[in-house]
Amino acid sequence: MKLVHSFVAALLLGMTSIALAEPIKLIIPTAPGGGTDGYFRVLAKEATPFIKDPIVVVNVPGAGGTIGVAQMVHASPDGQTLAAVWLGPVTVSPHTMKVQYTPNDYIPVIQLTSAPYVFCVHPEFPASDGKSFIEELRKNADKYTYGNDGAGGPGQLAAERIFRAMKVKARDIPFKGAGETATAFLGKHIDIYVGSVPPILQHAQGGRAKCVLLSSADNIASLPSATGLRDLGIADEETILWRGVLAPKGTPPAKIAELEAGFEKAASAPATRKFLDDAGEQLLIRKGAALRQYIDKEYEALGKLAKALNLSPQ
């Protein structure tokens, strides 16, 4: 009888521990829907077997993602509040609007994905690859218009970073996102689409768009005709649409290590890999000092660019 009582007590204790487990609050600083929200919802589900505490996803949209990141940096540094981000609120928005945090206020836990911005033109455009595209812009300064994801957004900065390095000019037309940019491009209201791969991929495959240039150093399999920046001799000017997880400054190293390991395993799960494959994105893991160095370098480069473009907040 004592054995039975002991078993029941242990079972109840275990159930109580599970019930009292504090969930991890994973802040996604966008509205529901879209690539970033979709990816991190899949990741959170796949991370459940690898991270001790349950994960609850919370959308905190607004101000280019900076409101959600601000909530994370001001949370208790116990590893129970994290932010699931893309480059925008980390290395772009701090240079184009006033934000309530600096790079020193968070710990980059892990980078998980990598995808370039892509430059696509209409089929009749007189260029077939990145080199001929740049030459056409060079011969016709400010003749062509390009759509992007908003004034001071990552798409605009990615484009201007390349154009300035190659000493060419095009007129930017801001939209609310890549989907709106694609619609304007397909309607021939702008000459060049600059945005993420998914909204334009099927149109490129169907011959309605000709994708000629990438913002990444190297080519990608889903758009083999698009030229990477390495072939233009400006690999250091790449701007990548990356996604990763941040934690508040002061989070214990042991907790960071647990989160890092759990999310890395979840990133390789079949469902998570399928999400990336369908979106034309790649799995790319960076962590620790390498990730901090990468973010700091990008932060500095995009800060200089924003200042040169007079995008810095007044």
The number of helical runs is 11
CATH-assigned fold name of the largest domain: D-Maltodextrin-Binding Protein, domain 2
Provide the gyration radius in Å. Answer: 22 Å
Strand content: 15-25%
Question: What would the principal axes of the Cα set say about the shape?
Answer: globular
Query: Considering the protein shown, what is the CATH homologous superfamily of the largest domain?
Result: Bordetella uptake gene, domain 1
What features would you highlight for this structure?
314 residues; alpha/beta; D-Maltodextrin-Binding Protein, domain 2; 2 domains; 11 helices; 11 strands; globular; disordered N terminus
Structure in words:
It is a single chain. Helix 2 (35-47) packs across helix 9 and helix 2 packs antiparallel against helix 10. The protein folds into two domains: 2-114 and 240-308, Bordetella uptake gene, domain 1 (D-Maltodextrin-Binding Protein, domain 2), CATH 3.40.190; 118-237, 3-Layer(aba) Sandwich (D-Maltodextrin-Binding Protein, domain 2), CATH 3.40.190. The protein is 42% helix and 20% strand. The protein contains eleven helices and eleven strands. It has helices spanning 2-20, 35-47, 66-73, 88-92, 130-139, 154-166, 178-186, 198-205, 253-267, 270-279, 288-308, and strands at 24-28, 55-59, 81-86, 106-116, 118-121, 145-148, 171-174, 192-195, 210-214, 240-248, 282-287.
How are the secondary structure elements laid out?
Elements: H1 2-20, E1 24-28, H2 35-47, E2 55-59, H3 66-73, E3 81-86, H4 88-92, E4 106-116, E5 118-121, H5 130-139, E6 145-148, H6 154-166, E7 171-174, H7 178-186, E8 192-195, H8 198-205, E9 210-214, E10 240-248, H9 253-267, H10 270-279, E11 282-287, H11 288-308
Parallel strand pairs: 1-2, 1-3, 6-7, 6-8
Antiparallel strand pairs: 3-10, 4-10, 4-11, 5-8, 5-9
Helix pairs in contact: 2-9, 2-10
